[in-house]
Design a protein that fits this description.
By secondary structure, the chain is mostly helical. 44% of the residues lie in helices and 2% in strands. The chain has a two-stranded antiparallel sheet with strand order 1-2. Helix 4 (86-93) packs antiparallel against helix 5. It starts with a helix and ends with a strand.
């Protein structure tokens, strides 16, 4: 009787150990799935009581650097640091004289302040699960990093027809975040609040 009980206990321990090992392995293989699950869980906890819309809360920290907003936001949308990992921002800041076809060189003081801000608030240092998802996986190619080239971005936008975005004069391209994410400046990229100009609300 004692031998049978011992064997049952050992079997249970073995099953639990194998299950734990498998779970750990799966998480290591696909971090962006884990981050997406975390984000979905966070968002389900903040569903508004009416209309099925989520409460407006930032899932990427909004820009809070005047220097960054003034220097970079003067030419394009001031993308939040949490939309790219540190290594990507480093590459961008090291290539300001050839900044996506333009010369965006800055004086040393401004460049140093912006670099420090971007690196300190990059995706791989963020607390929000959506921001951390932008740090998972590899950026494709050897060119300057693009948010639209991250694995997480492509995964979230692959079902949107090109004509809705690049073929849409009111949007122009996937990099024009605020055209469809009306609260992008506040760091809110909730997919349930996307409104595509000329086409209306998008809900996949």
């Amino acid at each position: 009787m004692k031998r049978t009980a011992t064997l049952i206990v050992l079997a249970i321990v073995a099953i639990v150990s194998i299950s734990t090992a498998i779970s750990s392995s799966d998480m290591g293989e696909d971090d962006d799935d884990r981050y997406e699950d975390e984000h979905d869980s966070e968002m389900r906890g903040s569903v508004a009581s009416a209309g099925g819309w989520f409460e407006s809360r930032a899932d990427i920290d909004p820009v809070d650097s005047d220097t960054y907003r003034d220097e970079c936001g003067a030419c394009h949308f001031a993308y939040q640091p949490g939309l790219l990992p540190r290594r990507a921002w480093e590459q961008i800041m090291n290539s300001l004289d050839a900044h996506y076809g333009d010369d965006a060189s800055l004086d040393e003081e401004s460049a140093a302040a912006i670099r420090a801000y971007l690196l300190d608030h990059a995706a791989d240092r963020a607390s929000q699960s959506r921001a951390r998802a932008f740090a998972a996986g590899n950026l494709s190619g050897d060119a300057l990093p693009r948010i639209t080239a991250t694995r997480y971005f492509r995964r979230e936008h692959h079902e949107i027809p090109t004509r809705f975005v690049q073929g849409n004069p009111e949007v122009g391209g996937f990099g024009n975040c605020q055209a469809c994410h009306r609260n992008a400046e506040r760091g809110i990229y909730n997919e349930h609040q996307v409104v595509i100009p000329g086409f209306g609300r998008w809900d996949d």
